[in-house]
Amino acid sequence: MVEAHTPPCDLALLVVESRYERIHAAYMLAATAAAMGQTVLLFGMGAGVCAFCREWNGLDAAEGARMRAQAGVAGLDDLRDAVVDMGVTLMVCDSGVKTLGLNAQDLLAGVETVGLPSFFDRAGRARQLVF
């Protein structure tokens, strides 16, 4: 069996909190790096899994959305649509999904639920940042 070739990952962003500002920063960096032609992996763990759900339930300090809308800055919906359109890999940790009581229907289409070894395999030697 021939395995599909996945390009090396340039940047791996780990979202471990449900705070709006941290999730917004992760999506901003992911969108910018992808727009610059880098291969990006966004990975959610623990409470950060909420950043990969269809609905934005569970975000802390979401008043950042109002401030950004007033300033004309892209919000989470726009950023998330952009990273999906640019082919950013989206993964969540299976333990976070279980802890939050979620299932596959709660997650965005295309989000892979994996264990930590799969994250490390995919991230390879990429730069890693934690949010």
Topology:
Blueprint lengths: L10 E5 L4 H16 L4 E5 L18 H9 L4 H10 L3 E5 H6 L12 E3 L1 H8 L3 E4 L1
Parallel strand pairs: 1-2, 1-5, 2-3, 3-4
Q: What's the short version?
A:
This protein is an alpha/beta fold and 131 residues long. Helices cover 37% and strands 17% of the residues.
Task: Describe this protein with a few key phrases.
single chain, 131 residues, alpha/beta, 5-stranded parallel β-sheet, 5 helices, globular
Structural features, described:
By secondary structure, the protein is an alpha/beta fold. It is built from 5 helices and 5 strands. The chain has helices spanning 20-35, 63-71, 76-85, 94-99, 116-123; strands at 11-15, 40-44, 89-93, 112-114, 127-130. The protein has a 5-stranded parallel β-sheet, sandwiched between helices. Strand 3 (89-93), helix 4 (94-99) and strand 4 form a beta-alpha-beta unit. Helix 1 (20-35) packs parallel to helix 3 (76-85). The longest helix has 16 residues, at 20-35. The chain is globular.
